[in-house]
Amino acid sequence: xxxxxxxxxxxxxxxxxxxxxxxxxxxxxxxxxxxxxxxxxxxxxxxxxxxxxxxxxxxxxxxxxxxxxxxxxxxxxxxxxxxxxxxxxxxxxxxxxxxxxxxxxxxxxxxxxxxxxxxxxxxxxxxxxxxxxxxxxxxxxxxxxxxxxxxxxxxxxxxxxxxxxxxxxxxxxxxxxxxxxxxxxxxxxxxxxxxxxxxxxxxxxxxxxxxxxxxxxxxxxxxxxxxxxxxxxxxxxxxxxxxxxxxxxxxxxxxxxxxxxxxxxxxxxxxxxxxxxxxxxxxxxxxxxxxxxxxxxxxxxxxxxxxxxxxxxxxxxxxxxxxxxxxxxxxxxxxxxxxxxxxxxxxxxxxxxxxxxxxxxxxxxxxxxxxxxxxxxxxxxxxxxxxxxxxxxxxxxxxxxxxxxxxxxxxxxxxxxxxxxxxxxxxxxxxxxxxxxxxxxxxxxxxxxxxxxxxxxxxxxxxxxxxxxxxxxxxxxxxxxxxxxxxxxxxxxx
Length: 494
Fold this sequence. Notes:
Mean pLDDT: 84
Largest sheet: 4 strands, mixed
Strand order of the largest sheet: 1-2-5-6
Helix content: 55-70%
Radius of gyration: 22 Å
Number of domains: 1
Order of helices and strands: HEEHHHEHHHHEHEEHHHHHHHHHHH
Number of helices: 20
């Protein structure tokens, strides 16, 4: 618990404006004003910053070094200095993030970037924490023999459920029964394909499915747009991956130790589905959609806090009220969410320069000339594999809209972009959406659930590949050909 408090101390640090640290007068005469206003009988904290931090110098290229260092340590730590990494990764992640934040505050005089990253991190970790803990109190027992057919059905069901309770919820709900079904024959590839299908590509159909699509929904993309436009790439990708998995699993000759099975499926802790429902419903409490929802106003943007309070409250209550025997049977502990929380503090903090440089180029005259649905697919995709796919989605959506004269901060423009009111804009949005969600499976850090699934697997003794091993052994030979085929079928010739 002591380490959890460090997270919130760091977030509090992010929320302190740069002017609080600096005695340098604001040459533009801009001032930071914090006030509270009534909005349809709801108390709303409005933090307005009159262009303070909106105009600032771009970070230099070398500012991405802390981000690169963190990625390299995530890749090499568990492989070459496991004991040191396991005990010190929270300190390393926070230290690198603080280094970049301090550079933004004192050198670039930019408080907007760190504060914005802080808000996004809170939204990100609140959803993951709520889904992780609420699903931890549900125990699904599948008394079936782990066969290629059974495993493939579980993966297909997971790909559907991911669109209802999110890739995180589906991953946490199914990873433990998936491992138990395959006891005695479980291999690393089982977990890798689980990550590919349930933790990533499966969640392509609704804004609830994956964080990038959720951010698009908040910006104005209609809720059912992803279902109608992403369905065929989703079905194509899922079926190909399940087919490859089935062929691999048929070669696995190891068997379970149990000789007889009842073929029964039982669910204990079903009351926790109510907690999951509350989290899913809370997703819709968006102040950008409903004016009555209280929000923090900052530089013309609205950031939710009621939704996050509900999600974290659900996490607390679902754990306190859960059946402790079920938690123990599920081998539930906080290590997976702790690992995600600290590593993504480092990722959100250090990736600011990389995202800003990429976004600035993409929206520059030189970048705009390169914009097409093809470059958006590959650009969004490749960066989503190594940066977090949610902010990458927003950067390339902004670039795509700028190339046709649209503004990402206008809900009307985003709606028209989705409706194809701009030339080929719907195709651009589909390319961005598929690129962000599909390529999130490319590395352990591409999407939040990836690390949690890896951590849960390792805790029960499954030897998982390193960061580079994951990419070299699975992503490059399996995902890259799939991504090329998806591009050829759905984008290349349109």
